[in-house]
Amino acid sequence: MARGVATYLAWLSRRWVAGSQRLDPQAERLMDYLYGARSAQQRVAEERIRQVSRGLLEHYSRHQAFWSLVHEGDEDVVDIQASGSMSVSSRRIEVVSIGEHLDQSTVKGSGEVMLIRDVVMSALGCGIAYGLGHDAAIASVLLNDWQRVRLFLCSPLTTVPVARTTVSGPEEIHKLEPLEPAGRFPQMEEPSAALTQLLLASLRKARA
After folding, report:
1. What is the DSSP string of 105-126?
2. What pLDDT, on the 0 to 100 scale, is given for residue 99?
3. What is the pTM (predicted TM-score) of this model?
4. Contact predicate 151/129, CB 8 Å
5. Digit-coded pLDDT (tens) for 8-18
C-alpha cells in the first residue's frame, strides 16, 4: 500500500512541477515540500515522498480517522513526523471537511484545481488499489499525461441511485431513487454507494 500512495504523490508532484496541474494552496505547499524548491535532488524528493506516504498510512490506519474521512466527511489534521534525516522535516496536513471541500469546488475556475481533500483521498485510494493487486492497471493509467486521475474512497457498494421522472398533472417531478425498485437508501451511518454518500453530504451541507 505504501508503494501505491508514494506512486500517486510522485506522479502528482511531477505534474505540478511541469505546470500541468493546478493545486489549491494547501496541496501546493505539500508538493513544494516533496519537490523542494523544484531543484531538490531526486534522492531528497524520493525520501520525502516515502515519509509523507508512511505518515498518511499511519494516520488513516486508525479506524476512526479512516471512516471519518470516508463516511462522515469531517475535517482532520495529519501530523507527519520527521525521521531523523537531514532531508526531511515534520509536516502538518489540514484536510478540510466535505462541506468546505464542496464550497471550494463550486468557485469559478475550480474545476482545473486539485484540492487538498482530493490529494489525500486519491493517494490513499491508489494505495488501496495497489494493496488489492491492481498496481499494473493504475500504473498504466498514470502513464497517460493527458489524464487527470482522481480516486474517490467510498463504502462498499450497496445502493445505486438512479434519477426517475414522473408526471403529475402539468408538472414533471424528478426524484433520486434506488435502482432496485424494492430497495431503500441507507442511513447516514450505513455503508453506501459513492453517489449516495456525496448526495447526503451535499444535503447535510445545505441544511447547515
Report:
1. HTSTTGGGEE-HHHHHHHHHHH
2. 82
3. 0.75
4. yes
5. 999 999 999 88
